[in-house]
Design goal:
It contains 23 helices and 26 strands. It starts with a helix and ends with a strand.
Length: 633
């Protein structure tokens, strides 16, 4: 059967009335056609001599409803329209007579030409058009399978196997949409007002990222416990951890999970010197985690490390009678790192607190200075230089890139005279820096947190098939101190990935997705907040350079206007749900290059769970999509 015969069986839903420009068409669509709206994808067939050109167009605006041109009802009643006129018009558009019997009303709409559809050797693609469609060309609804193949042409024919399923087209529920996870390292923004479905959308994307990739890993800022399930999980939804446990782990997929708890002490001492986990940690973390695992009838090897006290425990979940407080897990001290460092990489689940280790990288000083004395970094560097000149041996000087904070404090006292006379510092400046360093030592630093343990923890976070939650709700109390240790963790990950070739005997994947829920907290737009926020400079570094090392950012926020413009502009993929605030719309308009003006205007009209998807990880760089996201259930 010829292509022409096939096309004659298609039903037209309108025609091109005017070619406004190379990429813009004015069309008339029948008002009786259902499931059409702004964002709908349509097919135009233009007869160019003996060649039928096919175009994919996107409906971007609906301007009016009017009678069909040349068929005004009063003219028909007066007999001023001949049967020949009707016959010629109907012959232009296959199937038109069916709609004429239904309704003579039409919708006047504006469509943007996305590209020309090409079919060669059973391959279908969308290319830049060499010429626009002609006026009076037929407008049709594309077939679902054909449209799905057009949308995913850039991903190849196996898009369903290697893609990250997101949902279906809003106006064609039988057309599935898959994101391209290989482009997640080019950074992504998920933006929406409160209640529009951004967190549920993020959970779906992370779930599919882990499911579809054999080498993927993710680090998630879990602000209220919605991702791990160890906090607030809204009714009718499922946590990311539970979905992965239910669908993948219980069916044999080997995944590892890590929970990081910034600046808390897990252990407490009972009578007789026995150390056990605290009651709050037991009730808020281990007990609900135990319930999840018991629910799906799997056995998990779990490890717990308290880096502050240099304690650890290993046990299996589920624990019988977990509600019995007498079953609290006991912890034991480890005298050297060899006892636990390999276990860190092997446990199915690792629970650990996180502080600054006893030696920090010198490159972190500019970040640590934020919100502190003006000469903080400079004075410490000069003090360290005096130390190294005075003593070339000893622990702080074996690795010159690490700074031992307690030893620097001692050196500030020891070399105070030389700092004043040789470098010209005032005593008040030295005292201010000493005060700041004491604060770091007392509130941010764990003396027992050995750098080697820290190194293995970073390696676990970066290993394939690993999901890590930075737990930022009870028992953690988020504060400016929390931001400093989070900044150090991210900075160390960046250093690890940028020097990955130097690693020995550690397998690290170049496919880490860092997910920042409530991103405006960590990447503020305000200059005053930015100067004090220690996480921002690290995020800017990852946003600019992370792609080449396999580090991707996914920023999530209900207030785009409050997000740093530099970071937002580096997000090559946009998933935007409903946004009505005009300032947030303006921030998106000027900071995200992948969004079109008509999409910004559409943002306030989106339904809950409906998203506009565009950019690098979208299935097609040419086609912005209006998608109904399928939430995890």
């Amino acid at each position: 059967m010829s292509n022409k015969t096939k096309e004659e069986k298609l039903i037209s839903i309108g025609l091109v009335e005017e070619v406004s420009s190379f990429y813009e068409l004015k069309v008339r669509l029948f008002a009786s056609i259902e499931n059409l709206g702004v964002g709908s994808l349509l097919k135009v067939i233009s007869h160019d001599g003996d060649v039928n050109r096919m175009y994919l167009v996107r409906l971007i605006d609906i301007t009016d409803v009017a009678p069909f041109p040349g068929l005004r009802l009063e003219e028909l009643l007066r007999g001023e329209v001949t049967l020949r006129d009707l016959r010629e018009l109907m012959e232009r558009l296959p199937g038109l007579s069916t709609h004429l019997r239904t309704s003579l009303s039409t919708v006047i709409a504006i469509c943007r030409v996305l590209g020309e559809i090409k079919k060669e050797d059973n391959q279908i693609s969308l290319v830049a058009p060499s010429r626009p469609p002609r006026a009076w060309s037929a407008v049709m609804l594309p077939e679902a399978k054909e449209l799905e193949m057009i949308v995913h042409a850039e991903m190849g024919q196996d898009y369903a196997q290697k893609g990250a399923y997101l949902g279906t087209l809003s106006y064609l529920s039988n057309v599935r949409v898959y994101l391209n996870p290989s482009k997640f390292n080019m950074h992504m923004a998920i933006l929406a007002q409160t209640g529009a479905g951004k967190t549920e959308t993020a959970k779906r994307i992370i779930y599919e990222f882990i499911k579809s990739q054999n080498d993927a890993c993710s680090l998630i800022f879990d602000v209220v416990g919605q991702y791990s399930g160890l906090g607030l999980v809204e009714s009718g939804t499922v946590s990311l951890f539970e979905a992965l446990l239910r669908d993948l782990v219980s069916n044999g997929r080997k995944l590892k999970f890590t929970w990081i708890f910034p600046l808390i002490k897990i252990a407490y001492r009972k009578l007789g010197g026995l150390r056990k986990v605290s009651q709050v940690f037991w009730k808020k973390i281990i007990r609900p985690l135990n319930d999840y695992i018991a629910k799906y009838n799997v056995e998990i090897q779990c490890g717990l490390i308290d880096v502050y006290h240099k304690l650890y425990a290993e046990f299996s979940l589920p624990i019988p009678d977990a509600k019995d407080d007498s079953q609290y897990i006991g912890l034991q001290e480890f005298s050297d790192t060899s006892e636990v460092k390999n276990k860190i990489l092997d446990w199915d689940i690792l629970l650990t607190n996180y502080w600054l280790p006893n030696s920090i990288r010198e490159t972190f000083l500019p970040t640590l200075q934020r919100g502190r004395t003006e000469f903080f970094e400079m004075l410490i560097r000069d003090t360290v230089e005096l130390q190294r000149n005075a003593r070339k041996e000893g622990r702080p000087y074996k690795v010159l890139t690490l700074i031992d904070v307690p030893l620097v404090l001692d050196a500030l006292q020891h070399f105070s005279t030389e700092l004043i006379e040789r470098y010209g510092y005032w005593q008040t400046t030295i005292n201010s820096v000493k005060r700041d360093l004491r604060y770091v030592k007392d509130y941010l630093l764990a003396r027992n947190f050995d750098p080697e343990i820290h190194y293995y923890l970073l390696s676990r976070i970066s290993s394939k098939n690993t999901v890590t939650f930075i737990h930022l709700t009870t028992p953690v109390v988020e504060s400016i101190n929390t931001l400093y240790v989070i900044a150090y963790l991210l900075d160390e990950l960046f250093e690890l990935y940028s020097n990955i070739s130097l690693l020995e005997n550690i397998e690290v994947t170049r496919n880490l997705l860092i997910v920042l829920e409530e991103a405006h907290r960590y990447a503020p737009a305000s200059d005053d907040e930015a100067k004090k926020n220690p996480v921002l400079p690290v995020l800017e570094k990852i946003a600019r350079e992370g792609r080449k090392f396999g580090l991707g950012l996914c920023i999530i926020s209900q207030r785009p206007a409050f997000i740093n413009k530099t970071i937002l502009s580096q997000c090559s993929t946009l998933v935007a749900l409903r946004i009505r605030n005009k300032y947030d719309q303006e921030q998106i308009r000027y900071s995200v290059e992948s969004i079109l003006e008509e999409d910004v205007k559409l943002l306030p009209e989106l339904n809950t769970g409906e998203a506009l998807v565009s950019g690098a990880a979208s299935p097609s760089s040419l086609i912005p999509l209006r998608v109904k996201v399928e939430m995890l259930k």
